[in-house]
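Let us practice reading a record.
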Amino acid sequence: MNLTDRVAVVTGGAGGIGAALGRRFAAEGAAAIVLADLAADAARTVAEQIGPVAHGVGLDVADEAQVRALVEETERRYGRIDLFCANAGVATGGGVDAPDADWERAWRVNVLAHVYAARAVLPAMLRRGSGHVLLTCSAAGVLTAVGDAPYTATKHAALGFAEWLSITYRDAGIRVSALCPQGVDTPMLADGLATGHLGARVIAASGPVLTPDQVAEATIAGLAEERFLILPHPEVAAYARRRAEDPDGWQAGLRKLVRKLRAADH
């Protein structure tokens, strides 16, 4: 997809990767960019910084009625949605004993929000025979988020859903991409490193930590090539191959890294 004169919606657009996508889409000449976020004021501030082409709105992606209303209002205002980026996500930092509320929130934001977005945008895209849906699934969807069971499980589900969408609708003109970055310099990772969370430390030790702008740049390249799997960290592809070829060896390597990090604490 070429972003020139396109209409794009980005959830989780108030900061991090979402805000970077908004800025990059504007630089590519997008006709309109809607940045939606639970933090409505922050989304509006980012939109103001980008300029007249951008519009910030409040949105709880876990509420299907709100997602549907956002899509309907955007289509009414701009005539269409060419690209919908379901980018919002939440981490819990918990294991199997994480409270049910954390599992439920992760499920609704990391999985059901993608389902709600697809239900809302697909009808018009299918009528036109064109459109692109981008789901931010994280490298955790390809691999594993050590130290965060709900995040791992839901990101795997998100990637599975993205693949299903691509197989089901590509021949109807709909392109689907799964954005799967590893370490990104966002508050989510920074907070984890500040508190010494094991998962954040594993991420930081597994490859370079990219800026959101670098992820946005990789996304533009992936969209232009209509790739399904967009990997801003190329090493994730190598990790995925190793994991598929030797799952026991892959897990042994991760356990070794975890032991090393824990030993450093003593």
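A brief commentary: The first strand starts at residue 7 and ends at 11.
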